[in-house]
Design a protein that fits this description.
heterodimer, A: alpha/beta, GMP Synthetase, Chain A, domain 3, 2 domains, 4-stranded mixed β-sheet, 3-stranded mixed β-sheet, 5 helices, B: mainly alpha, Ferritin, globular
């Protein structure tokens, strides 16, 4: 029985190293997608939460959790998708934000979306390449559900911005 | 009607509206007027289909007949769909799609705001999640309404025509029946009359900013609560359900 050979902490550590399928420089733990691991007599239950309702990476993440645990001899895995508390970019650690920046993605600013400002001006995140604040939004929607497209008016590079929600 | 049956119906209304709107928007994939808009519309479509998936999954559990979200999406006939009539209207030109989306976004925005307080934990959690996405959608379509309405004579005329043509499907958004009455009493569902007031104010305010005319009160088409749809839904489903109908249970 692997619950005797693997502690909850060990399983959590194994899962913490799974990279996000879309942004492989950070892990599903860094992003706050991995919420919990519980052991019981039947096996192991992993709780995850989606970043966006329609995030197409969720299936890939589930598959990866199963196959990673399988490699460690843990077979009976139940994956639970949790919707509350609702995911927010505030859960992304400072360390992970730094990794995003180095990868070329401007990390989300501190506070999550301001619901009041429906016609508010777009944010001006710092360019992840040159650090300039002289940036502009090209499109509110980017290459994945969680990103918007910006460009830097100083170094002229386009870049992704991880939207605050 | 008992509470379980009512809740199943209620979930279908919510989920189907998102699903059908998402399917409509995804028809723009590869056809957007500019690349950024192509991406924007399909991003919104993705959120909506995601919302529908989660609610249909819950609906299947409430129904208790072992149906998955895929069974409910791909194997129900037209008359069993409960999406609002607005969602199934064909895309038309870009102004038409934006106008339809804007009217729908405002609806979802106030709807989910209210449904967050539902006593049903699943609906409450999904509403809170969806609201974040919808807020983003609404910001996008609001900006486009302003640009098109207060843009060139051509864009103004097109978006005005779109609002006028769509108006008769907006009454259906707020129709309430015994499902609503039963669940409202239980604290599960919301009072659509309240949503209607907020929706009307919001829409009127934005149309004015966009230099557009609020359509005069006219005949309102009804029927979605009972599965009575416009002629467009059948064609949409024929395409959406084709694969599962032709190769039942196929997986890829």
């Amino acid at each position: 029985m692997y619950t005797e050979t693997h502690s909850r902490e060990m399983i959590l550590k194994i899962l913490s190293e799974i990279p996000d399928p879309e942004i492989p420089v950070i892990t599903i733990k860094d992003l706050g997608i991995l919420r919990n691991v519980e052991l019981n007599s039947e096996g192991c239950r992993v709780t995850i939460t989606p970043t966006y309702s329609g995030c197409p990476a969720m299936k890939a993440i589930e598959d990866q959790i199963r196959s990673t645990l399988q490699l460690h001899g843990i077979g009976n895995v139940e994956i639970k998708t949790l919707y509350a508390p609702v995911w927010t970019t505030d859960w992304i650690s400072d360390e992970a934000k730094e990794k995003l920046r180095k990868y070329g993605i401007a990390p989300p600013e501190k506070k999550s979306l301001d619901k009041g400002s429906l016609l508010g001006k777009a944010k001006h995140p710092a360019c992840p390449q040159c650090g300039s604040m002289n940036t502009e939004m090209i499109s509110q929607f980017g290459s994945t559900a969680c990103k918007a497209l910006y460009r830097c008016k100083d170094c002229k590079e386009p870049f992704d911005y991880f939207k605050c929600i | 009607m008992d509470k379980q049956k009512a809740l199943f119906q209620y979930c279908l209304r919510l989920a189907d509206s998102s699903l059908i709107m998402g399917q409509r928007l995804s028809e723009w994939c590869g056809h957007g007027p500019v690349l950024e808009e192509d991406i924007a519309l399909t991003n919104i479509a993705l959120d909506l289909v995601g919302q529908a998936t989660a609610i249909l999954n819950y609906a299947g559990k409430v129904e208790g007949k072992g149906h998955t979200e895929d069974d409910l999406a791909f194997l129900r006939p037209e008359r069993e769909f409960r999406n609002v009539l607005l969602a199934e209207q064909p895309n038309g030109d870009y102004a038409f799609t934006i106008a339809r989306q804007f009217l729908f976004d405002v609806y979802q925005y106030y709807y989910y705001q209210s449904l967050q307080k539902s006593k049903d934990e699943t609906l409450s959690a999904l509403s809170e999640k969806s609201l974040k996405e919808v807020t983003y959608h609404l910001r996008h379509t609001s900006q486009w309404m302003l640009r098109l309405g207060d843009g060139t004579p051509e864009s103004h005329e097109r978006v005005q025509r779109a609002i006028n043509e769509l108006w008769m499907f907006t009454g259906d958004l707020f129709d309430m029946d015994e499902v609503d009455a039963l669940l409202l009493k239980e604290g599960v569902s919301i009072d659509l009359k309240e949503v209607k007031g907020k929706w009307e104010n919001h829409v009127a305010e934005l149309l004015e900013k966009a230099t557009l005319q609020l359509p005069v009160q006219t005949f309102m088409q009804a029927g979605s609560r009972a599965g009575k749809h416009t002629e467009h839904l059948g064609f949409l489903l024929a395409e959406m359900q084709y694969l599962q109908r032709t190769y039942p249970d196929v997986k890829w």
